[in-house]
Task: inverse folding
């Protein structure tokens, strides 16, 4: 891999502090920040931390449809099996 190419990673989760998934995502995100060729960002529905790498969805329409959006990956995976 060419060092000049930077990998961008976007983690998407409900929040960034509460719950096991949030803690795991933040642990993974923080470990990726230690690599010079990886850019890591977290997108959440509810931001609870003061991290500058975590961004909250501000759009109320997106928040209203979040449960439907959560189902999209499983629908896509079920169609492939």
Result:
């Amino acid at each position: 891999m060419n060092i000049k190419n930077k990998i961008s990673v976007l983690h998407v989760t409900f929040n960034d502090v509460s719950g096991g998934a949030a803690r795991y995502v933040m642990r993974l995100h923080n470990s990726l920040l230690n690599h010079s060729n990886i850019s890591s960002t977290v997108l959440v529905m509810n931001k609870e931390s003061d991290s500058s790498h975590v961004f909250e969805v501000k759009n109320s329409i997106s928040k209203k449809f979040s449960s439907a959006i959560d189902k999209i990956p499983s629908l896509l995976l079920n169609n492939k099996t």
User: Anything to note?
Assistant: The CA atoms of residues 18 and 30 lie 16 Å apart. The chain has a mean pLDDT of 80. DSSP finds three helices and three strands in the chain.
